[in-house]
Amino acid sequence: MKLTKLFLAGLAGVFAFSSCQNDDLQEPYQTDIPSDIYHQLNELGFRANEVVAIGDDTYIVERDIKLTRTEIEDMAGWGQVAGEHYHTTNLVATPRVITVWVDNSLTRKYRQAAVIGLTRYNALNLDISFARASNAGSADILLKASPAFYEFLGILGSAGFPDAQGNPFNEVLLTRGFYDNVQNINGLATTIAHEVGHCVGFRHTDYMDRSYSCGGPTDNEGDGGVGAVYIPGTPAGPSANSWMLACGSPEGDRPFTNADVNALTTLY
Question: More exposed terminus of the chain, fewer Cβ within 10 Å: N or C?
Fold first, then answer.
């Protein structure tokens, strides 16, 4: 059974070194975040004490989510948005062929990894599929290198979530300083598949307790059934080896698990 499209303001996600986060990178977190932003993030269930301002009223939260002030304000009243095998309220309108272009600034390895990662989606015969764009200007999603300051801030990449018109997020950024030396092309394919997962509306499968994949103390982000949309048929607890886990080795290959396939085929 397919879920119908749901429309509300979207978020944006970031994929960092250990899938989405390198716990060894502790700085630079900033304490001069505007108080209203801090309190709004806290009410939404994010770890508001972990916020990096990157300019123009744009913030990286938990090293994993990229949000503008406008997006944060638009989410007011949602309740906590944590969840496990959950999706964002915006989804891609279907049926849809999503075209992807890998920028020429990236090496051949990235193009090969993109083919592997996107083929994993196409093998499921979903109502969304992926194809190579003929040029950058015609691409629905452009995969390219992140700006230089990402590496300085310990941000290893970024992606976003679908918009209210049913379009996928149009950009995946990867920080070459962290990914150029990845030896396992299937690990890089998992990274790209994860980022594309954000682009079509998937949240992290262990978002209610990032310690499951990231280590460290238990970090319960809130009730997964409040403010996020549960995907029927998926586990209510942490999902081992999911492609959408918050953290994992950049060399580690995580093809879709049975639970991932259930989430993908239910949503699309």
Answer: N
pLDDT in the model for residue 187: 96
Phi and psi at residue 159, in whole multiples of 5°?
-150, 175
Average pLDDT in the chain:
76
What Rg, from alpha-carbon coordinates, does the chain have?
Answer: 17
Which amino acid, residue 19? S
Tell me the residue type at 138: S
Domain contains 160: yes
Residue 179 to residue 162: CA distance in whole angstroms: 25
Residue 102 lies in a domain: no
Q: What angle (nearest 5°) sits at the alpha carbon of residue 145, between those of residues 92 and 85?
A: 35
Query: Tens of pLDDT along 196-229?
Result: 998 998 887 875 665 666 776 545 443 333 235 6
Structure tokens given for 217? 């103390």
pLDDT score at 169: 92
Q: How far apart are CA 179 and CA 123, in angstroms?
A: 26
Q: Which domain holds residue 51?
A: 1-93+143-262
Interval 19-34 mean pLDDT: 48
Residue 15 has pLDDT above 50, yes or no: no
Please state, for a pLDDT cut of 70, what percent of the chain lies above it.
68
Inside any domain, residue 133: no
Number of domains in the chain: 1
Beta strands in the chain (DSSP E): 12-13, 51-55, 58-61, 65-68, 86-87, 96-102, 128-132, 141-145, 157-160, 171-174, 229-230
For residue 221, being part of any structural domain is answered with yes
